[in-house]
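[job 4471] stage=fold_predict status=RUNNING
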Amino acid sequence: MKQHLRTKNIAIIGMLIALDIIFTRFWMIQTPQIRISLGFFAIAMIGMLYGPMIAGIAAGLSDIVGWFMHPYAPFFPGFTLTAIVTGVIFGYFLHKPHTPLRSYIFSAICVTLVCDTLLNTLWLSLIQNVPFISLIITRGIKIAVMFILYIAILPIVCEKIKLLVKTHVI
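[job 4471] inference complete, writing structure tokens
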């Protein structure tokens, strides 16, 4: 599934970045400590199609452009770092010709533990001056919901996209 970045590929990446921005910044459920959105699947698609490096760059760009379009808090580069790490993880696990179910599960576990639980909670703790442990407790429901969404959506959407790529629709 190795592809060169031709005009078509850059256009697809741009559309997926736009989709990520829409889902993450506009179509989501948000409180001061919790944001539940479906934006992750666009970054996962970039990771699946183009690998970890491109997915990390696209996720970082998406976070920065999304903040400029819809800033709901002061810019904090830690969240951009988390977005980049998320893209790299999805690209690492999903950029394979035949992705076994365990790759979807491992990517969901890694993103949930590293990005959602550790990094984002650390950034919120620093910004809001709230103890890390108390934030982990309040964010537990969000983390569980996102893990379920990762497991439920990624295998279905990724396999459909792979079928479209295989039939040269994308």
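[job 4471] summary: The chain has a mean pLDDT of 88.
[job 4471] exit 0
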